[in-house]
Amino acid sequence: DAGVHSKAWYAATCDRKMAEDALYRSNKDGSFLIRKSSGQDSRQPYTLVVFYNRRVQYALGREKSGEERFDSVAEIVENHQRTSLVLIDSQNNTKDSTKLKHIVRVS
């Protein structure tokens, strides 16, 4: 389970729409949660959902060369609570960065 099920930031029964709604309600840059990915790729079982600049953005895709490696999802979250996470918007071709600051719970 990659050590995520006991974490406050893991939204076990959350789908994409629920995650987006919860993050829009929080309306704070750096709000985040982790949910199960909707795809069936076992190498990408989780999705990190982040609110920044009035938009919901997604991270935790496939590993790319030159990127930092982590042994667990928890390590990724802990690292990006201290250091900024780069958010790339492929539609507008822009880059932003934010730390993971506010855990959002889905109700």
From TrEMBL:
Q: Which InterPro entries match?
A: Immunoreceptor_sig_adapters, SH2, SH2_dom_sf
UniProt entry tagged with the keyword Metal-binding = no
* Any one Gene Ontology cellular component term annotated for this protein: cytoplasm
For this UniProt record, the keywords arranged alphabetically read as follows:
SH2 domain
Superkingdom in the source lineage = Eukaryota
Q: What is the lineage of its organism?
A: Eukaryota, Metazoa, Chordata, Craniata, Vertebrata
Domain SH2 per the UniProt entry, residue ranges: 9-104
Sorted alphabetically, which Pfam families does this protein's record hold? SH2 (PF00017)
Native species of this protein? Mystacornis crossleyi
Keyword Ligase included in the entry's annotation: no
Instruction: Look up the record and give one Gene Ontology term from the biological process aspect.
Output: cell surface receptor protein tyrosine kinase signaling pathway
Protein name (database record): BLNK protein
